[in-house]
TrEMBL record:
GO terms for molecular function: D-ribulose-phosphate 3-epimerase activity; metal ion binding. CDD domains: RPE. SUPFAM superfamilies: Ribulose-phoshate binding barrel (SSF51366). It comes from Anditalea andensis. It is an enzyme of class 5 (isomerase). The active site is at residues 35, 175. Substrate binds at residues 8, 66, 142-145, 175-177. The gene is rpe. This is Ribulose-phosphate 3-epimerase. Keywords: Carbohydrate metabolism, Cobalt, Isomerase, Manganese, Metal-binding, Zinc. Pathway: Carbohydrate degradation.
Length: 217
């Protein structure tokens, strides 16, 4: 199956966000990845509902909304209404993960779970069949442009094995430090979706970078 690409607008030019979204519309990207940070769960503040709504007004690709926030349950409906097609919550932020996943699905969105670098994939074994996409953080969440964590490859392989053993239909998404040097290895390890921020938006031709990622064998 062809790899799916989800450029992260966290790395976009915020002063020209409409133009950046329209560029992604014309590209081979599959999703638009929207990172929501609250300055509490992660040491940074990005943007929230108004900017998500603004992106949605111009986006022709589904919004892949990644909630890096505490108490995500109270915002699920709001982000659905803002345009999210996929809502991912952090396993570390959810006391009742199964209930949260069901709430996301009841809203008509795909349910995702993000896992920080220090967190074992075993934390989601009992709910893997309820998860549409697992977002493995390959950097510590909060800031773009960080160095890729090499242990991610092992984590992908272990998660792929879990998905196979349980008969789940879960996709594996990789978020952080994705570039031309590791993209093929990530796909070979079992990744289905690659989030790319600086690698795309700092390029002279972002659409070509996305096109090159799409043709990984």
């Amino acid at each position: 199956m062809s790899i799916l690409i989800a450029p992260s607008v966290l790395a976009a030019d915020f002063a020209n966000l409409q133009q950046e979204v329209e560029m992604l519309n014309k590209s081979d990207a599959d999703y638009i990845h929207v990172d929501i940070m609250d300055g509490v769960f992660v040491p940074n503040i990005s943007f929230g509902l108004p900017v998500t709504e603004a992106i949605k007004r111009h986006a022709l690709k589904p919004l892949d909304v990644h909630l890096m926030i505490i108490n995500p349950d109270q915002y699920l409906e709001a982000f659905k209404n803002a345009g999210a097609a996929i809502i991912s919550v952090h396993v570390e932020a959810c006391n009742h993960l199964h209930r949260t996943l069901q709430a996301i699905k009841d809203l008509g969105c795909q349910a995702g779970v993000a896992i920080n670098p220090h967190t074992s994939i075993e934390t989601i074994r009992n709910v893997i069949q309820d998860i549409d996409m697992v977002c493995i953080m390959s950097v510590n969440p909060g800031f773009g442009g960080q160095k890729f964590i090499e242990h991610t490859y092992t984590k992908i392989k272990d998660l792929k094995k879990m998905i196979s053993e349980t008969g789940a239909n879960t996709k594996i998404e990789i978020d952080g430090g994705v570039n031309a040097n590791n993209a093929q290895m990530l796909k070979d390890a079992g990744a289905d979706v690659l989030v790319a921020g600086n690698f795309v938006f700092s390029a002279a031709d972002p659409k070509q970078v996305i096109a090159d990622l799409k043709v990984l064998k």
